[in-house]
Amino acid sequence: MRALVTGAAGFIGSHVAEALGAAGYEVTGLDLRRTPYGPAGDVRDAEAVDRALAGADLVVHQAAKVGLGVDVADLPDYVSVNAHGTAVLLAAMARRDVRRLVLASSMVVYGEGAYDCREHGRVRPGPRTARDLADGVFEPRCPACGAELAGATIGEDAPPDPRNAYATTKLAQEHLAANWARETGGTVVALRYHNVYGPRMPKDTPYSGVAAIFRSALEAGRAPRVFEDGRQRRDFVHVHDVAAANVAAARAQGTPGALRAYNVASGEPHTIGEMASALAAERGGPEPVITGEYRLGDVRHIVASPARATGELGFHATVAFADGMKSFAAAPLG
Ligand code: UD1
């Protein structure tokens, strides 16, 4: 079986390529940077994609512009790399009659997590107002009555509600891939990654995930700066588990003509404050600072169950939070 991994030089893509290789796949790679799996090439370049697809049985699409972005000046790049790049790839797959796609999607397609209101049951609050955030009111409130809410677990069938450019283009990838599947009879397994961390995570940039930002700060002797009140919940999933999920997805039969989405999560949610403390403790300080700062594009809590991935793909996260953070505190960053 030959698998083309796009983004094979990246943080997640490099682990995915290695895991597929170890599982017996013949791996080719396409990335802006040269890799052991193939020459440099842009996923938006139809000829480069076409060459990379020669002989492929499936594509594992990890190439993307990631992160929350800095401001609206980033919009064209997100659309170009993520949406247009995926469209070029899908068109080339149709020409080459490659029928199987594993797509790196993201939990950010959900927007704000699910909540329960005592009066109104399950609700999905809209974006928090700048005013509430500035006043330190971080918890979303019931859209019907304004009451406080209890956090709940979100499932794959929840309606998507992307809140930033990255999320919007990740959802566009899912929609384009679903459309391709309908037209070609192909199968798409979309893996909605939660907060991935581990060795080679890109260092501190405005596009980095929070674990790498904290890790870089600690390495430089600075305190991790925890936004809001630090009680926002996420699910940190180790990159080795994410790579294993991709191998499971590559082996999966899929549903011809359709996209099927899966949460790829550890099932062990933690707060951002807990993550900062775990890393700081492991490195011997400095202690995290809770700053009350906020970013308009951020959601408050996002917690989902990996039960569907376990039931249908046989995926089980193996790296527990405490062990994963311990090794991440000393792991090389990209
Ligand atoms: C992250 C990724 C997103 C990916 C998703 C699932 C980034 C920027 N975001 O989304 O691409 O799809 O996981 O894998 O890579 N925070 C701080 N201090 C900081 C930076 C952030 O406290 O210096 C807080 C934020 O306010 C937020 C939380 O940490 O509450 C998580 O932030 P971040 O990792 O940037 O984004 P996610 O939305 O979780």
Automatic annotation (TrEMBL):
This is NAD-dependent epimerase/dehydratase family protein. Pfam families: Epimerase (PF01370). SUPFAM superfamilies: NAD(P)-binding Rossmann-fold domains. It comes from the Bacteria. Residues 3-115, 155-265 form the NAD-dependent epimerase/dehydratase domain.
